[in-house]
Write a structure and sequence with these properties.
The protein is of the alpha/beta class. It is built from 17 helices and 22 strands. The chain has helices spanning 4-22, 26-29, 51-59, 63-70, 113-131, 145-156, 180-201, 209-220, 234-239, 243-249, 304-318, 364-375, 391-397, 409-422, 433-440, 458-467, 502-514, and strands spanning 31-38, 48-49, 80-84, 92-97, 105-106, 111-112, 136-139, 171-174, 227-232, 257-264, 274-278, 280-284, 324-334, 345-348, 354-357, 382-387, 401-406, 425-429, 447-448, 475-479, 485-486, 496-497.
Amino acid sequence: MLPLRRAALWGLRRDHSRALSLSPTHRDAQKGLVLGVYEQEQEDGGPSFTESAEAFDRSLSGGLRELLAVSGPALKRGKSRIFYGVHKDFPSVVLVGLGKPSAGVCAQESWDQRRENIRAAAAVGCRQLQELEVSVVEVDACGDAQAAAEGAVLGLFEYDELKQKKKTAVDARLHGSSGAADWHRGVLYAEGQNLARHLMEAPANYVTPTAFAETIQQRLSPLSDKVTVHMRPQSWIEDHQMGAFLSVSKGSEEPPVFLEIHYRGGPSASQPPLVLVGKGVTFDSGGISLKPSSGMDAMRADMGGAATVCSAVVTAAALNLPLNIVGLAPLCENMPSGKANKPGDVVRAKNGKTIQIDNTDAEGRLILADALCYAHSLNPRAIVNAATLTGAMDVALGSAAAGVFTNSDWLWDHLQKAGAVTGDRVWRMPLFQHYTRQVTESQLADLNNVGKYSRSGGACTAAAFLREFVSAPHWAHLDIAGVMSNKDEVPYLRKGMSGRPTRTLVEFAAGLSREV
Ligand code: BES
Ligand code: ZN
Ligand code: ZN
């Protein structure tokens, strides 16, 4: 004899199987549900369900809990288990492990473990249903609808535009009615990061400087009442005497673009803007200091700085954040050619400083030098730049966090807090004079584009170089080379270019907008 509850459950399953077979419309079969389950806090305790999972289980007279118990060991964080035919509205229900209910902000890890668990759980559940070609998925808020939405929308993304066989397009929705605004915000944050992932992952023959700028312009066009886009052509760049930027772009057949986007969300047009600057090298071959061919394809993402800052501006505008932001992106290719920079060449940046280019592969700092000079002409409240600047940054921190070099404790505080909220973390790095000395000793010019002891402290000497073009009291440089791509380190991002740290930039802007 089956125990009573078990018997009730099977009865219920039979009923639902019948319901499905009576009306097995394809639409019904396409709906799925993702519900959260916490790990037991004590060894002998059973799993605890989220509010939504609890309510769903009640509607099945405890059937879900029964199924979970008989189907295998306790559901661990980030793991999932799928059940079919338990409910007439949801032919597939995935339970996802949320880890310990006590998880929360962790100072050591510099993030909110609870939110990270929710993102990972939502992603794994949605992905499992996507594999089954389920096209509508309702997702449990799991106590934080924004994190759940981020996990769902980030987890489902895959760049398959150029493949004939594509992943199922999944419409992820909030299960239940509470938390709709948070869910919507999470969708916007994640869509912003997905825009950056799209731009970074797409091949360099698709995302040229011009195509990059047009994509951003197009994404901003529905918001045109509060946004202005300038696609500055080569002649404008010449008029502005951006000699360092031009020296890099001249090696390529693709014309450079200096993209400038203004978002007016602040209380007045005269409120000093947050100026975001992004390195936009749409392909970095290294130039005459040619990179090794193995892995060179990844350098299509060397516009990750531009992609993340521009996507952050798009997202800030979509969120209607109450502050002014300007996004700047010097966009070009770094190619070897008869016109390319040669080791030992000297160029003059916008602020008059001369630079000896001893390595043409250290091109990011050249194009950023001019963009940073220009940023100062916009009466900035703060300048934050992002760049896939150095392999040394990847060596130092890997993909755990973006390195932040800043002259401002205030900016650091805001950036660090933002990273902890989004889980896309930052870590402070030094801006010592020690490094400055290594780039200001140059045989032919004011500066050298590589440090004197070229490999040692490469991320720090690059930052020291950029600092020579900064006089603003609040400036931060984010070296995002280490977080450019994801293998499997971030569980809610598939393998590929990461779009990091778009959400942190958005959260950072939101934080600034709250500060008067
Ligand atoms: N775009 C690269 C840095 C990079 C490397 C980004 C790996 C992402 C992953 C940059 O332009 C570069 O080549 N930097 C050189 C500087 C060196 C020549 C001083 C580097 O890091 O090796
Ligand atoms: Zn390079
Ligand atoms: Zn580069």
